[in-house]
Here is the input.
Amino acid sequence: MDRKSAIDQYRPDLKSFEQVYRDIHKNPKLSKQEVRTASIAASHLEALGDLIVHQRIGGYGVVGVLRNGPGPTVLLRADMDALPHLEKTHLDYASTKVVTDLEGKSTPVIGDITPPSQVVVEWDSDLNPCKEESLARQPRAEF
Here is the structure.
């Protein structure tokens, strides 16, 4: 099966995540300040019911483990911290937030919610969707 066919066949309906996406986008937090964002991520993973959820990984990181067999572990990573830029999208949920960074400087912020870029169609091991800022310092893995 080619990538497009797999995505078309297995892509979930994400409508139920639209409100939370807009909320996080409208209320971004800089790295190391994502207390609320991490709480939202953990609550959503816990609501799925099949995941073992770990919080406060490397700061405000969140990991959900889905046990699925003895094979190699698959990791899906997503960033949810904000970038220190003025948002100019004019979306109804655009960020208008100005925050104070760790050095005490006020700056406008834009939400940077980056979903996993790969689709896993079939596997027989563990799945770890996570939000963990310390992983950003690791080399990027290709699946």
In short: The chain is about 20% helix and 20% strand.
